[in-house]
C-alpha cells in the first residue's frame, strides 16, 4: 500500500509538470473502445495555495486539440486480457490523436472500469496543537483514519476526504485557517484489484508513455454526467459500458460510493448473436440500428434482414421481426438494471434526500431504456450526456464518451486525495509503536 501512496504522489507531480508544459493525453481504456484525447492547457497552473479543498490541487482551463478512438482489443470486463492486443490498440489511438493535434505527448492520465471496486467509509480525528488548522493538521486527521483490511492483492485507487468537522461544526469543505480544538474528517476509500492496475501500468509503459494519473471510470463518468445540483444534493450515475456497468453515488460534490456490475452492452450483443445465430459484428449492427426494449403492434410487421456471408442463400436471406429482437434484448437489459438496483440498495441510496439517477455510457442509448430503468430502479431517471468541453469533436460528445470527458475534468480540476498531503510517518495508520514514537518526537 505504501508503494501505491508514493507512486500516486509521484503521478500528481508528473501531472503538474505535464500541465506546466501545456499538453497531456487522456486515455479511456474500455471494453468496446479505447479513446484518446489530447488537452492543451491555456496557461500555467495556478498555485495550489490559492485554492480551497474543493479541488485543492490547482485548476486550469483547457481545450481538446486531438481526439481518436479505436476498437478495443484484448480487454474483457474492463480488464486487460491480452497485453499485445491492448498495447497495439492504445498505440493506434494515441498516434492518431497525436497526428490530429500535431504534437507529441509523453504523459497520459488513464481510466478503466473493471477490477471489482469496493467502497469504504473511514473516519479520523486529530487534536489541534495550535488553535488554527494548518495543512499539517489536515494531513494528521487523514492519517488517523483507520484503514480497514482491504484484502490481499488489493490497492487503494481513490481516497477522498468528503467532509471535515471542527469541534461541533460539521460540513466544512476546507477547514484550513479556521479556529478550533478538534478536527475530524470523513474519507471515502475505493479499493480495486491490484493486478488489474499493475497490468494497465505495464501496458502503458510498453507504449513508451508515462502515467500521470489513474482513475475509476465510474467516478469520472459521474463527474462529467451529473449536473452541479445533482452532485450537491445526491445522485447516482450508472455508466453502461461494453463489458461492465459502473455505479457511483455522489453527495455534496464528492463520490461516496462506487461499484461495478460485470455486464454491459457486449452481453446484449452476444445474446443477439447466439439467439439469431449470426456473427457478433452483424448482431452489433442490428442492435444499434433496430434495437429497443419496448415492443408495439407495429414491431410485429417491421422485418429486419439478418444478412450474413455463410454461403447458404436460405440462411443469409433470413428475416426476423423487431418484436423478436426486442424479446432477446430486454431480459439482459433488465438483468443489468436489476443488478445495479441491488448495488444501490446495498449502498443505502434510498436514504439520500434527492434520489435522481443518471444513465450514461454507450449502452444507455438503447431506445426506451430510460422508461424501463425508471420502472426497475423506481426513481427519477434521466439519460445523461457529458458536459461540453471546448474543442471536443461532435463525434465525441455522446454518452459513450462520458468517462473520457470526465477524465479531462479530473485532469484539469482534480479533487483532493489522501496523497496530496504530506502524511506524517504513520502514513498508513500503522501500529501503535510508530504512533508512540511519533508522539514522543512531536511532544518532547
From TrEMBL:
Name the CDD domains for this protein.
Answer: ASKHA_NBD_FtsA
Q: What membrane topology term does the record carry?
A: Peripheral membrane protein
Which GO cellular component terms, listed alphabetically, does the Swiss-Prot or TrEMBL entry include? cell division site; cytoplasmic side of plasma membrane
Primary localization class, coarse: membrane
| Keyword terms, alphabetized | Cell cycle, Cell division, Cell membrane, Membrane
Under the heading InterPro entries, the entry gives: ATPase_NBD, Cell_div_FtsA, FtsA/MreB, SHS2_FtsA
Identify the SMART domains for this entry: FtsA
HAMAP family reported for this sequence? FtsA
What's the name of the protein? Answer: Cell division protein FtsA
Amino acid at each position: 500500500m505504501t508503494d501505491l501512496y508514493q507512486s500516486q504522489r509521484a503521478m500528481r507531480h508528473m501531472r503538474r509538470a505535464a500541465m506546466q508544459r501545456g499538453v497531456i493525453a487522456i486515455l479511456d481504456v474500455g471494453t468496446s473502445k479505447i479513446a484518446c484525447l489530447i488537452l492543451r492547457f491555456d496557461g500555467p497552473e495556478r498555485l495550489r495555495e490559492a485554492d480551497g479543498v474543493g479541488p485543492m490541487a490547482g485548476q486550469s482551463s483547457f481545450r481538446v486539440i486531438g481526439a481518436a478512438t479505436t476498437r478495443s482489443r484484448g480487454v474483457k470486463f474492463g480488464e486487460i486480457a491480452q497485453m499485445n492486443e491492448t498495447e497495439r490498440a492504445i498505440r493506434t489511438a494515441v498516434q492518431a490523436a497525436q497526428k490530429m493535434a500535431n504534437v507529441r505527448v509523453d504523459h497520459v492520465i488513464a481510466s478503466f472500469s473493471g477490477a471489482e471496486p469496493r467502497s469504504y467509509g473511514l473516519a479520523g480525528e486529530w487534536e489541534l496543537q495550535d488553535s488554527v488548522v494548518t495543512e499539517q493538521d489536515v494531513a494528521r486527521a487523514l492519517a488517523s483514519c483507520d484503514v480497514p483490511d482491504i484484502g490481499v492483492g488489493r490497492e487503494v485507487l481513490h481516497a477522498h476526504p468528503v467532509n471535515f468537522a471542527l469541534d461541533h461544526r460539521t460540513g466544512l469543505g476546507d477547514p484550513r485557517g479556521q479556529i478550533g480544538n478538534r478536527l475530524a474528517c470523513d474519507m471515502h476509500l475505493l479499493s480495486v484489484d491490484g493486478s488489474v492496475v499493475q497490468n494497465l501500468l505495464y501496458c502503458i509503459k510498453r507504449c513508451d508513455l508515462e502515467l500521470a494519473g489513474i482513475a475509476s471510470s465510474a467516478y469520472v463518468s459521474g463527474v462529467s454526467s451529473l449536473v452541479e445540483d445533482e452532485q450537491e444534493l445526491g445522485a447516482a450515475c450508472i455508466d453502461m459500458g461494453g463489458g461492465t456497468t459502473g455505479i457511483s453515488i455522489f453527495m455534496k460534490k464528492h463520490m461516496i460510493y462506487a461499484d461495478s456490475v460485470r455486464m454491459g452492452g457486449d452481453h446484449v450483443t452476444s445474446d443477439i448473436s447466439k439467439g439469431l445465430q449470426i456473427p457478433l459484428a452483424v448482431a452489433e449492427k442490428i442492435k444499434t440500428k433496430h434495437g429497443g426494449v419496448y415492443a408495439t403492434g407495429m414491431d410485429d410487421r417491421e422485418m429486419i434482414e439478418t444478412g450474413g456471408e455463410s454461403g447458404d442463400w436460405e440462411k443469409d436471406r433470413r428475416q426476423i421481426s423487431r418484436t423478436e429482437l426486442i424479446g432477446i434484448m430486454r431480459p439482459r437489459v433488465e438483468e443489468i438494471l436489476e443488478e445495479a438496483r441491488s448495488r444501490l440498495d446495498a449502498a443505502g441510496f434510498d436514504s439520500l434526500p434527492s434520489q435522481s439517477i443518471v444513465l450514461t455510457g454507450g449502452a444507455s442509448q438503447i431506445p426506451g431504456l430510460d422508461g424501463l430503468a425508471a420502472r426497475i430502479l423506481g426513481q427519477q431517471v434521466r439519460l445523461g450526456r457529458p458536459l461540453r468541453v471546448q474543442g471536443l469533436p461532435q463525434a465525441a460528445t455522446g454518452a459513450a464518451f462520458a468517462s473520457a470527458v470526465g477524465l479531462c475534468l479530473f485532469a484539469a480540476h482534480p479533487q483532493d486525495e489522501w496523497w496530496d498531503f504530506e502524511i506524517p510517518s504513520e502514513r498508513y495508520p500503522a501500529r501503535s509503536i510508530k504512533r508512540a514514537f511519533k508522539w514522543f518526537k512531536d511532544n518532547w
